[in-house]
Amino acid sequence: MATLADKAILSGADNRPPMLEKEMYDSWKSRIELYMLNRQHGRMIIKSIENGPLVWPSIEENRVTRQKKYSELSATEAIQADCDIKETNIILQGLPPEVYALVSNHKVAKELWERIQLLMQGTSLTK
After folding, report:
1. Of residues 10, 8, 6, 28, the one with CA closest to residue 19
2. Rounded distance, CA 4 to CA 19, Å?
3. pTM metric for this prediction
4. 50/37 Cα distance (integer angstroms)
5. Which domain of life does the protein's organism represent (predicted)?
6. Which of 2, 39, 45, 114 has the most CB atoms around it within 10 Å of its CB?
7. Dihedral through CA 105, CA 107, CA 108, CA 113, nearest 10?
8. Residue 93 in contact with residue 31, Cβ under 8 Å?
9. In 3-96, which ranges are continuous DSSP H helix?
């Protein structure tokens, strides 16, 4: 007899983030965090949600300070910049249309994450 996990793997659930159900926010939060951890650089993705995105470094060029271009970032900084985009995509893909419409203007995952939690307060076990 196949377990629930086996069925999830067979149905391709590992390829899509879990979908938020309004009455099950706490469960969704746990499942989407596990989903993120299972992605490449998962710990970096989670850290970025907790701490905010990469603060892009600046360089001085001809006595003018400017933000580095993506191609000028260190390998670690580039991975972090990529993770910042991945996490936002993962969160947005896990939202039903009515919630997505309320939060899609947030492009920073930390703000997006906090806004979803605020919206779901009182609709789940977060009370």
Report:
1. 28
2. 16
3. 0.79
4. 13
5. Eukaryota
6. 45
7. 50
8. no
9. 4-10, 25-37, 42-51, 75-93
